[in-house]
Every structure is written in structure tokens, then in C-alpha cells.
Amino acid sequence: MISSTKPIQTQLRILSVIPPMTQLNTPYPSTAYLTGFLRSRGMFAVQEDLALSLVLRLLSSLGLKQVAGQVDLLSDKKITPAIRAFNTQRVRYFSTIDAVIRFLQGRDSTLAHRIASRQFLPEGPRFDSLDVYVDEEGGDPLSWAFGALGLNDRAKHIATLYLNDLADVLRDAIDPRFEFVRYAESLAASQASFDPLSAALGADKNLVDETLHALTMDAIKLHRPGLVLISVPFPGSVYGAFRIAQSIKNYDPQIKIVLGGGFVNTELRELKDPRVFDYFDFVTLDAGERPLLSLIEYLEGKRGESRLVRTFIRDRESSTVRYINLIEPDVPFNEVGTPTWDGLPLDRYLSLLDMLNPMNRLWSDGRWNKLTIAHGCYWKKCSFCDVSLDYIGRYEAAEASVLVDRIDQIVQETGQTGFHFVDEAAPPKSLKALATELIERDTGISWWGNIRFEKTFSPELCELLADSGCIAVSGGLEVASDRLLTLMKKGVSIDQVARVTRAFTDAGVLVHAYLMYGFPTQTVQDTVDALEYVRQLFLNGCIQSGFFHRFTCTVHSPVGLHPEEYGVTLKPLPEITFAKNDVGFIDPTGVDHAALGVGLKKAIYNYMHGIGLEDDVRNWFDFKVPKTTVARNRIERALMT
Predict the structure, then answer these.
(1) What is the pLDDT of residues 256-276, one digit of tens each?
(2) What is the pLDDT of residues 441-470, one digit of tens each?
(3) Cβ–Cβ under 8 Å, residues 306 and 324
(4) Regarding the domain with residue range 13-51+186-335, which homologous superfamily does it belong to in the CATH classification?
């Protein structure tokens, strides 16, 4: 067994890669974690963000001229409104794109004046969305969102719309799967068969593919790795990951490539298709540190193949997929090392302002150092969550002193003091200890993260967290129904959520609520009542931001594992040889949740802007729904107890 702290002597050069697409404003943290861990063991480890590199190469004056060349080859039938707008203004796009990128990178702030004037940049169909905000007198359509003084924010939003127009051109003219986030997602998300992805990888390369290939070759020739780690957190980064692996294998089949990350950990647990191993030599599950250590020892001839940990391989004799898992303890969370962003171009990420939602802004605007307070979730009971998997089910916290040591080291390295704690739900006990340590050391950081709205967050604790630098929290209110909160084992009540969220608000902390609709047995009445609770939470200053999303049943959640306990029947799945995650279900209530979702999203968008907070919630729906059964002062009463 490998010691948890003993350095490994290896000559391997290890490259960790972020594939397209993840985030554009800050590096996805997986490579920073792996690189920091490997370096803490004395290994040669470097990293590249090929997602950012791809976007910056395409969205440049040279890149847009290449796009224009592809556009010129299209027939008239393929000219969409986005392409037509690009064609008529292509010279302006060529002359402005590099300046816009510099502005969004924070390297040319004075350009905000020209961008905000709306006379500098060409405008395509994405700018039509601004027309809905023009007031009756024909006033400024953005004044409601940014006010008279929000020059930089106004310019960021306009510049983001400009980039979105260009993304539409790339999608319509070059690659119909192209998105800044969910790139070719349908090829991987809950895709039972590898066939669609295999067909896409076998097709001729388009301009996006060729650009990614060139960037991959640049990285390989620069770093000369013997081992490449490709982390895929989302279905929207799978296609890019396979294209990168394909390029590497065609260049040098001797380079070993490992596939891991959040998508693999949730969706490839039953991998059977050997064709995956035409691209990757190994596929690893769950926390990457221990499997990587065993792989490195295997590649160095220090352990046999049968002693790999949580690793899929293709059997050389039978050409079938084999899963090998020698049981060894994971590396303690205190000993995983400090993430490092060394090697990533931190001054080249793009601060975007897309959705006019205060919490969404934290996700897309500004560069945040991402850090984990604890591994897994301390609650791990919610019935909609993948509590059976390691990233949720194995809880392990780090000492506050260790965390602040890591924070100090990261600030020293990056020169930036903003932190996003990426825990599933940061434990209140750990947060209290962390806040105390931050204050005692006078560590002047700003931070935000995800929590559970549990009663432990007293007004005093909220004040302490704010004093330590907390600027925002997000948490799951989910269905906003005490009956359904109990059914999903959320461990909170509506009244409790009201008091906790108000305590954070009173402490000056922004509060975002994750909201859910379509949970098993949720009726139309439940949905209307939930919206009434949400209305009152906004009205009483408890939350400032929120988002409704449709419930999805996954095979690793309690609902997916024990559907009979939730009154639903799962739909049969096809034979699984590739990805497995989402599963359909039959709910005897027969509610049209899709229709209700339109009204829910319309309502919360307006609530975030202070509109309609006194109105009957039934007004948000385009069809008749029952009157709410919730008293109009329910939240007000809860706050008084």
C-alpha cells in the first residue's frame, strides 16, 4: 500500500488538461487540485486550459476571418439571422473583437465608454432581448438593471451579448453543437450507447475541431508529457476531451491518457464499450488522488495491473472492459495539498455578464479561486441527490488552520483574494471555525459558497461569517413545501429557511435559493403554494436571487434507487454500455410540470427585479390554477417567532 505522505520517485512528466467547455471567467479547479497534489509529492506536473485557449483563438480577428471563410461556403438556405447579421457587419467584427476581449479580460477598462454607447459594436439578434426593457417613453433599456452609474456593468452586458452573437454564428455556420458551456452535450449526457459520440469523432474535422487539434499539439510539444490527465466535469466537455485524446493518440500512441472527473464519476460507472479505450488508456472513478498514485506506480513498473485502484482498462486478451479496484484508503483530505494555478493564464479569463441575476453573476463575472472546505456532504440524505456516490457520501473535513494555510498560499500565488468554496454544502461547524481563523489572522478575503439553510446558522453566526468575508450564500429551498421537504429528507422547514435567509440578509450577505419543481407527487396546488412562499421570501427581504429548475431523477439518488418510496415508477432503460444517469419516471399525479415551469420562471425573474411582489401568484400562469392555501403573512409571522 502507498503511504499517504511518502513522495513517489518518478520520471513521468504529467500534464492535466481542462477540455472545452467549462467556464470562461475562471479555471475549472480539477487541474489545479491535481497539479497541486502531484507537486506536493515531488512530481513534475503542469496544466493547460484548452477550453479558454479554444475560445480565445476562435474569437480573435484572425479566428473570425477564418469563420468568415467558412460562412462564404454556405448556400443561401443555410444563412440564419445570426449569420446574416455577421455578414453585413463582418468588417466591424474583425476590427472590434480583439478590443472587446481585452476589455472583458480587464486589460482595457476605458473601452467601457465606447461599448456602453452602443455605437461601437455591431449588434446581431441577441440584442433583440434588450428591446423588451424599453419603457413607454423609449428610454434607456438597461437603466432598470444597471442604473445611471453602472457604466462598466452595462458595457460588460453589451459585450457579452456581442460574444453570444458570435457563438451563434459558430454554431450555425461551423458546428451545430457549439456552445460556450454545453458543447455537444447531447453526445454524452445519459447516452446509453457510445455510437453517437463515436460517429462524431469519426467525422471530418470542422474549424472548431481543427483549432482544438492545433492547440492540443502546441501543448503536447511544449510540455512533452508521458501521462496526460483529462478531467471532464460535465457532459458538455466530453466531446472536447475525446477530440483532445484523439489528437494525442494520433501524434504519439505511447503517451498514456487518463479520463476522470465529475461526468465519469456519475455517468460512466457501468462502462462496457471497449471503443472508449481507442482514445484513453485508463478511466478512473471518484477522488483522483489514490487512483493516480497507483497508476503512476503501475506505469513505473512498481505494481502490477491487478493492483490498480478504481480504474477501468481494456483487457488485452479479450478486448473487453475490465474494472480493477484494489481497496486502499483514500488520501486524507488534510493531505491532498494546496491547489495551484501556476501555468494557467489568469489574466486572460473573460468576465462576462450574461443573465441579469445577482448569483449568476458570481458564476460568470470575475475570477474566483475555487477551494473545497470538506470532501462530500455532511448531511447526505436528500432524496434527489447522488448520495450513494463518493463525492457526496464520503464526508471528510479539513482543519481550519490547514484551510487558511491553503488560502494564504493561493492568495500569494494568484494575487487575488476572491474565493468560491465549491462544497456541495459547506458544514456550519467548519465554516464557523474557518471564519474565526480568518478573522484571527486578519486574512482579507471575499468568499461565497453553497450551504444548507439549517437552524445552526443563527444571526450571530451569520454576522461572524460576514465579518470573515462572506459576500453570498446559495442553498436549496427546493420545492418550498413542508410536505415535500419532509418527503425529500431535506431536513429544513419553510419557517426555518425564512429565519436563516433573513439572518444572512441582515448581515449583508446576498442569498440565492435553488428551487425545484416536478418532484414526485408534487401537485399543481403544491406548486402554486411554493411560488407564494417564494414571493413572500422576496417581499420580506429573505432572498435576493433564485432559480427554478425541473427535477430530474438520477439512478444514484434515493428516488432512483427506491422509487416505490416516492410513489413513482421508473421507466425502463435501454442496455447501458456507455453513460447512465438520468432515468424517466411515471408520476400518478399526471401534472404538466413543463407548463407550470414557464410561469415559475417568469415570476422569479420579475421578483428578482422587485416587480409583482404584491400580485396574486396566479397571474404568472397562462392557464387557470388554484388559489394558494398559504396565508399572505406566513413568512412575516415566521420571522417574528
Answers:
(1) 999 999 999 999 999 999 999
(2) 999 999 999 999 999 999 999 999 999 999
(3) yes
(4) Cobalamin-binding domain (3.40.50.280)
User: What is the distance, to the nearest Å, from the Cα of residue 400 to the centroid of all Cα atoms in its chain?
Assistant: 26
Q: How far apart are CA 294 and CA 289, in angstroms?
A: 9
Listed in sequence order, the residues at least 6 apart from 333 whose beta carbon sits closer than 8 Å to its beta carbon are: 374, 375, 396, 397, 398
The β-bridge partners of 323 are 312
Q: Do strands 374-375 and 396-397 pair parallel, antiparallel, or not at all (unpaired)?
A: antiparallel
Q: Which CATH number fits domain 355-640: 3.90.1570, 1.10.260, 3.20.20, 3.30.300?
A: 3.20.20
Q: Where do you find CATH 3.20.20 in the chain?
A: 355-640
pTM for this model (two decimals): 0.93
CA dist., res. 34 & res. 340, Å (int): 9
Burial of 253: CB neighbours in 10 Å, binned 0-12, 13-18, 19+? exposed
pLDDT class of 3 with cuts at 50, 70, 90: very low
Q: What is the 3-state secondary structure (H, E, C) of 253-300?
A: CCCEEEEECHHHHHHCCCCCCHHHHHCCCEEECCCCHHHHHHHHHHHC
- Judge contact between 54 and 237, C-beta under 8 A: no
Residue 323 in 3-state DSSP?
strand
31-78 pLDDT, tens digit per residue, is 999 999 999 999 999 999 999 999 999 999 999 999 999 999 999 999
Axis crossing angle, helix 151-173 with helix 61-71, rounded to the nearest 10: 40
